[in-house]
Amino acid sequence: MRLGLNLGYWSGGPADHVALAQAAESLGYDSVWTAEAYGSDAVTPLTWIAARTERIKVGTAIMQMPARTPAMTAMTAATLDMLSGGRVLLGLGVSGPQVVEGWHGVAYGNPLKRSREYVDIVRAILRREQPLEYHGEVYDIPAQGGTGLGKPLKLIIHPLRATIPIYLAAIGPKNIALAAEIADGWLPIFFAPQRAEVFRSSLEEGFARAGGGKGMADFDIAVTVPVVMGSDVAGCRMWVKPMLALYIGGMGARGKNFYNELARRYGYDEAADRIQDLYLAGRRDEAIAAVPDELVDDVALCGPRERIAERIGLWRNAGVNTMILGVIDPATLRTMAELVL
Q1: Full-model pTM
Q2: Which domain holds residue 58?
């Protein structure tokens, strides 16, 4: 099992993230990942980090597809891959309706169709086999109905790699199946290894559609795991509960919250209802308190070194290839390297 470092959103001085990434590289971590929502973008901090590291892979978790045309994403990935010496892992996701429509001003539409066409176009651009021409339900290249002056073009630069690994962020059954079918890896959030069976049928469906004998051996399950180390288990859990409350309670509208649905699939129906009711009512402290300890332990590693060491095997046994750690301090980074690597 490989280790990655999840730096999340850029929120402070760049030196802090660079120092963590450099420490991860020196400890043998395989990858470092950045994120974006409606603040810092994922690519700029990742480029900064790539320039100050030598070997560690650099991944986006995730670049929002509705925020960029497929061509812009292919250009960006090819450029950073060349600058970094072939270290890019291209993580993509459709985000959610609130951000897509409320921030980017783009209709959310059908995320499955968008994802499939987007990946097709990015891969075609990187291969450079012929000028790009693609007429799908979501993307129409060259665009029809405009000036009529558009013509098929080919990427000017020659990518260092024509097959940059593509990861899809997904938590719904159909999206997970699509990731297994068309992507090189899957970036699930709040992955509960003891409840991994809820994902198995979707993965198997996607592999079957892909054909060619594709299976778990050809697919990177890259799971972000919050890690909070300390002697007080309850206190460590409290570092994770606000994030779970935000996503389950407030990341989406009532009846359209993918994370709330995921908690229900894990069996936390009553807690999901209560967290959402409290969060949407503005009672955020109560929503945080309503997050069950069991749910935190399902998706995170909390407590002293010995407790974490006992629980790491749950992720390995669930088929996780890459454990992307959400940590903020070098000491925990080092301890996890000692325990896993």
Answers
A1: 0.96
A2: 2-225+320-340
